[in-house]
Write a structure and sequence with these properties.
seven-stranded mixed β-sheet, 12% strand, globular, binds pyridoxal-5'-phosphate, alpha/beta
Length: 374
Amino acid sequence: MKVYLDNAATTPMAKEVIDAIIPLMQNNFGNPSSTHSFGREVRGIVETARRKIGYFLNVTPGELIFTSGGTEADNMALLCSVEDLGVTHIITSPMEHHAVLHTVEHLQATNQIKLSMVKVKPDGHIDLEDLERLIGDGKNTLVSLMHANNEIGNMLPLEKVGNLCHSKGAYFHSDTVQTIAHYAFDLDALPIDFVTCSAHKFHGPKGIGFLYVSKKLKINAMIHGGSQERGKRGGTENIIGIVGLAKAMTEALLNVEEHQNHVQGLKTYMINELEKNITGIQFNGDAKGDSLYTVLNVCFPEHPKGSMLLLHLDLLGIAVSGGSACSSGSNKGSHVLESINSDPKRPAVRFSFSRLTTKEEIDYALNQLYKILN
Ligand code: PLP
């Protein structure tokens, strides 16, 4: 049996998404910038997809800039804040994805910003008092904090943090890569300036995402070239990706509560079963509190097979992750687990689920785990 429990790394494309993009690949090859009928047809397809996404998030289509994914969108929010909004101080946390952390580190190393790291509490939540202190008078300041952490699942109170930032005049960017299309958003009502999206986290294609920029802000291109995306992102549009993203979002959000209940049920079941069957089990982050329903980071007791747990699971057909899959290939420990002082001697495994995950798959994974550990 093969069981895929690494959905925070990426998800399989939904059948509906594949069905939506195949005819496009067969029939609609025009360049949307061309003024002839081939181009106009595809321009219409792109703008229909943009309007659909705008409808679901309650934003105007002009507030969405298609990008090559979450990494580019995060880069653009941060770099354009500095270049176009005069930001000279960025506050972020040590638990952010490398798309944010490495970008702000670059901005600091090139003397473009002062960088502040907000304190993280032992349960993985951001210390909001420390954040308020760091924002100070909010002048030329951007706060960049992710909505849900991709490794431990902790969630940020977006509205509260956005209100805090805006009350002080600071800008607010949130990496929402793990939450867009997993929750219903009303971006128009939220006090937020930038959010980021990546389609492959919700059964869409890889290599496509977007940056939402509030219409109150005026930013320019990060990638220079043609006048695509109203001059804010040069390069011929990824038509297949854009249509796939819109379809994936539609499929995810039309029945979002049903998906949430199903996946949260699996997560709760797994927590309960692990607690019943493995003495000394713990969870990294706030698994039973304000936590993303698709992620469960398990902190196993020390065990002789601990360091080889992922390999043992892989040999049994179970795909999980030992931290962020985005840094797989490097054997450095997880910076997120380090920031919450998780004991490095205790093996940590991230199980991450999707609406396609079944209880049978969870039972298989649990039974194999017990066999390995007993
Ligand atoms: N931000 C978070 C929280 C992520 O989990 C990821 C993906 O792993 C990214 C950003 C990067 O997204 P992409 O793979 O689309 O570049």
